[in-house]
Amino acid sequence: MLHGPGYAGTVTHDAPDHPGERLGLPREGSGSIARIGRRIGALFVDYGAAYLISGFFGWDPMAILAIFAAIQIVFIPTLQGSPGHRIFGLRLVRVDGAWVGLWRPVVRTALLVVVIPAVIWDADQRGLHDKAAGTVLLRA
After folding, report:
1. What's CA 13's distance to the chain center, in Å?
2. Is 0.90 topped by the overall pTM?
3. How far apart are CA 122 and CA 111, in angstroms?
């Protein structure tokens, strides 16, 4: 069966001009989506701190992971980010810009320690852990 032009409708759509455009965020500067370099730097700071603190517990890998999770869960609601986030000039907020609350950091961290959700991103450079928690990591 033959169909006329435009039968399938619009198959493609315009890609966003920059990460965060669909969320109404600026291209760069304060309030823009945090880029990969800052994210990795913050991750190294937080994991390094957990690694050093775990020395008191015999360098147990599970202790390192538990301490890393505790750092995330405690500091995200209180400082709008972990110590690594704050050192690298980042802050974590809800998509609507409000305070993240208490349960979002728990969900986000649980998915972050699994690793896979954190490395699958959308066009706005939000990992699945951020999408599930309804959060976005921004430049401060």
Report:
1. 25
2. no
3. 16
Instruction: Give the gyration radius of the chain's Cα atoms.
Output: 18
Taking the mean position of all CA atoms in its chain, how far away is CA 56? Answer: 29
Residue linked to tokens 């599930």 = 132
Q: Cβ-count burial of 26 within 10 angstroms (0-12 exposed, 13-18 middle, 19+ buried)?
A: middle
pLDDT in tens, 67-97: 999 999 999 999 999 999 999 999 999 999 9
Which are the contacts of 23, defined by CB distance < 8 A and separation ≥ 6? 95, 124, 136
Report how far residue 18's alpha carbon sits from residue 10's, in angstroms, rounded to the nearest whole number: 22
Cα separation values, 58 from 53, 63, 65, 72, 86, Å: 10, 9, 13, 21, 28
